[in-house]
């Protein structure tokens, strides 16, 4: 292809030189030369059009991908001060019943559980810390714990990070391992950046930093 381009350029240069130096009318290139030049021009135009379409396609894909991420990750609006106070009050009521708010990761899978009276299943929850309360409830501040499945499986959240309200069950498992129960209607999703999603009394959702809720719990 390079040799052919050089031949074409050389022919054009010679034609121009001849036209400039001669007093005679310029010689028109032959039909074969003209047809070849037209084919070369068409190839170049097609190549440029293809490159432009490919670049546009990439731009469209990137734009669509960004749009999907944006629509899938719409931020939850900030919770109002009243919502934070109300959720904290609900948690304090549960604390008076023996529950403790802890945060961590809910693992996937069921664990067969038998406390000598009831046979059921539990899930594994890795406790990373507690929002408030002390260990007198029997709920540890860190470590893996087995939590009874709720009565309704639909109340069990998907694997992920949460704040859960846990209390120690009346009996350990037959193997002697402590068992815990959860308050299924007070499950707070926890994002990687420390934001909690609260269910406000009016049914709306609001986001608040975990430390802000901790401060509210400890203020009373």
Chain-wise SSE layout:
Elements: H1 2-21, H2 31-72, H3 81-96, E1 100-106, E2 111-114, E3 119-130, E4 143-148, E5 160-168, E6 179-182, E7 188-189, E8 195-199, E9 205-209, H4 210-218
Parallel strand pairs: 4-6
Antiparallel strand pairs: 1-3, 1-5, 2-3, 3-4, 5-6, 5-7, 8-9
Helix pairs in contact: 3-4
Unreliable spans are: 53-72
**What percentage of residues falls in helices of 4 or more residues?**
25-40%
Oligomer: single chain
Q: Count up the helices.
A: 4
Biggest β-sheet: count, sense, barrel? Answer: 5 strands, mixed, barrel
Mean pLDDT: 79
Beta-strand level of the residues, as a percent range? 15-25%
Class of secondary structure makeup:
alpha+beta
Total number of strands: 9
Radius of gyration: 36 Å
Looking at this protein, list some descriptive labels.
single chain, 220 residues, alpha+beta, two-stranded antiparallel ribbon
Structural write-up:
With 220 residues, this protein is an alpha+beta fold. The protein has helices spanning 2-21, 31-72, 81-96, 210-218; strands at residues 100-106, 111-114, 119-130, 143-148, 160-168, 179-182, 188-189, 195-199, 205-209. The strands form two sheets. A five-stranded mixed beta barrel has the order 1-3-4-6-5. A two-stranded antiparallel ribbon has the order 8-9. Helix 3 crosses helix 4 (210-218). The N and C termini lie far apart (83 Å).
Concise account of the structure shown:
By secondary structure, the protein is α+β, with helices and mostly antiparallel strands.
């Amino acid at each position: 292809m390079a040799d052919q381009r050089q031949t074409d350029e050389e022919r054009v240069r010679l034609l121009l030189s001849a036209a400039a130096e001669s007093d005679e009318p310029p010689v028109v290139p032959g039909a074969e030369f003209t047809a070849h030049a037209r084919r070369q021009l068409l190839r170049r135009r097609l190549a440029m059009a293809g490159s432009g379409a490919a670049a546009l396609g990439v731009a469209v894909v990137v734009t669509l991908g960004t749009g999907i991420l944006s629509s899938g990750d719409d931020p939850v609006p900030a919770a109002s001060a009243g919502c934070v106070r109300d959720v904290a009050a609900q948690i304090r009521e549960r604390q008076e019943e023996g529950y403790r708010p802890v945060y961590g990761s809910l693992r996937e899978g069921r664990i067969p559980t038998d406390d000598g009276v009831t046979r059921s299943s539990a899930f594994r929850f890795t406790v990373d810390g507690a929002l408030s309360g002390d260990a007198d409830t029997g709920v540890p501040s860190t470590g893996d714990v087995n939590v009874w499945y709720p009565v309704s499986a639909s109340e069990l959240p998907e694997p992920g990070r949460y704040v859960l309200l846990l209390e120690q069950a009346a009996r350990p498992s037959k193997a002697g391992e402590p068992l815990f129960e959860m308050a299924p209607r007070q499950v707070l999703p926890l994002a990687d950046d420390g934001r909690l999603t609260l269910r406000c009394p009016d049914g709306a959702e609001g986001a608040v930093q975990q430390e802000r809720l901790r401060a509210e719990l400890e203020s009373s």
